[in-house]
Write a structure and sequence with these properties.
This protein has 433 residues and is of the alpha/beta class. The chain is 49% helix and 9% strand. Helix 2 packs across helix 3, helix 16 packs antiparallel against helix 17 and helix 17 runs antiparallel to helix 18.
Length: 433
């Protein structure tokens, strides 16, 4: 009989995926199993994703990075999106979310699952319009679930589905006076469908049916936040918190079905609210792993939102967030290109790594100490090897080469490392010549 990761953990069974995650995280397999059992760790791993290299997301583990990509109706370049997939692998991301909403979505998704060893996530709601070739008001409950089932069969490891939005929360939303209303693309689609048809959210109303699909393939449900704040003005308002409470109730129902859960969190939030929000989520959602987009700490930096996101992401991950969705410099402006993707990954990795060091995770400082030793020894090859972006570090160094090979062109012969190394070695210090 097939058992999900959660069902295995509840029976005290250590799976091969748990063993792989334990080795990566410098933890024992028992530690990973107990986390999956409690729901504080998830290992998204669809049984149909045959070449996956499993990752753990959650408490006591390194902060994970997700890369968004996919085919857009305004810019349809399948080859470029696959180059972004390769970049995600090369730059050390942990998951890819295929957000395709146009064209041959099923073909692209299947190739992605077949090609990628990373965790693959999707938002089936995005795919429904193009796949079904129907207007929103013509989509039925059965249509929605057909799309979900297709994604499951294709090997997707986690779904983002906006299950917490319901008729009650819609009433509150209309009375809220929010500055930016609903900014979640999936949330806006399901809201519009509910308003047009007069029906309840099908994924809220038929949540157990959704869980049956997730359990069949061992898909982790990533509970989407339809009412997340889309600007710092709306952060931590009653709509966001009320939905979070609802997601906490759905989390327990999913766990009871043997399904792993990730909770999605805010996208825009002032610095002083982030830590409290992380703790609030963990309390209301029973310690389930928390997945955040940023959060972006200011709304006035288009073109630099990978930086505003990294600032918020570092604070969030230090305060309890487990999974950071990258943000690129193109956020709010256009579909990101390959360089945007790389910049977004590096910015998120910096935030995640900084948080892992602050959180005292086993081995988190090893590379930093190795970099420091290399800098002390002026060992440039090792510095480039350890750097998050090896190519950029070497390119910068070589673009303005130093006259003195054992320094850089910033300090030249006045390099502090060179001076002190020579003195400690009993050599002279020749700076002028």
């Amino acid at each position: 009989m097939f058992l999900t990761q959660r069902e295995s953990a509840l029976k005290g069974i250590i799976t091969k995926e748990m063993e792989i995650v334990a080795k990566k995280e410098n933890r024992t397999p028992e530690f990973i199993m107990e986390g999956v059992k409690k729901g504080t760790i998830a290992i998204p791993c669809n049984k149909n994703h045959k070449n996956i290299d499993p990752e753990g997301v959650g408490e006591g583990l390194s902060t994970k990075i997700n890369v968004n990509l996919g085919i857009s109706g305004d810019f349809q370049d399948y080859d470029e999106e696959m180059r972004k997939v390769d970049c995600a692998h090369e730059m050390g991301a942990h998951s890819i979310m295929d957000l395709s909403n146009y064209g041959k979505t099923a073909e692209f998704r299947r190739k992605l699952v077949e090609r990628s060893k990373l965790m693959i996530g999707t938002v089936p709601l995005y795919d429904a319009i193009g796949y079904l070739e129907k207007e929103l008001d013509k989509i039925t409950v059965e249509d929605w679930f057909d799309v979900v089932k297709n994604h499951a069969e294709d090997g997707v490891d986690f779904f983002t589905i906006h299950c917490g939005l319901n008729r009650t929360s819609i009433k509150s939303f209309k009375e809220s006076g929010r500055l930016m209303d609903i900014v979640s693309r999936g949330g806006s689609l399901i809201y519009a469908w509910m308003e047009i048809t007069g029906n309840e959210n099908p994924f809220y109303e038929h949540f157990d049916r959704l869980m049956d699909i997730c359990r069949e393939y061992d898909i982790t449900i990533s509970l989407g936040d339809s009412l997340r704040p889309g600007c710092i003005h709306d952060a931590t308002d009653s709509l966001q918190i009320a939905e979070l409470i609802e997601l906490g109730l759905l989390t327990k129902r999913a766990w009871d079905k043997g399904v792993q859960v990730i909770i999605e969190g805010p996208g825009h939030m002032a610095l002083d609210e982030i830590a409290a929000n992380m703790k609030l989520q963990k309390r209301l959602c029973h310690g389930a792993p928390f997945y955040v987009l940023g959060p972006l700490v200011t709304d006035i930096a288009p073109g630099y939102d990978h930086i505003t996101s990294a600032i918020g992401g570092a604070i969030a991950a230090t305060s309890g967030a487990d999974f950071l969705c990258y943000v690129t410099p193109a956020e709010h402006l256009r579909l990101p290109d390959l360089n945007d993707v790389k910049e977004g990954i590096v910015a998120s990795k910096i935030a995640a790594h900084a948080a892992d060091i602050a959180n005292g995770l086993p081995g988190a400082r090893e590379l930093d100490d190795r970099m420091s030793r290399a800098r002390k020894q002026l060992d440039w090859d090792t510095m480039f090897e350890v750097a998050l972006d090896k190519e950029k570090a070497r390119e910068y160094f070589e673009s303005r080469p130093p006259q003195e090979k054992h320094s850089c062109s910033m300090c030249g012969k006045m390099c502090a490392m060179r001076t002190v190394n020579n003195v400690l070695a009993g050599k002279g210090v020749n700076i002028k010549d």
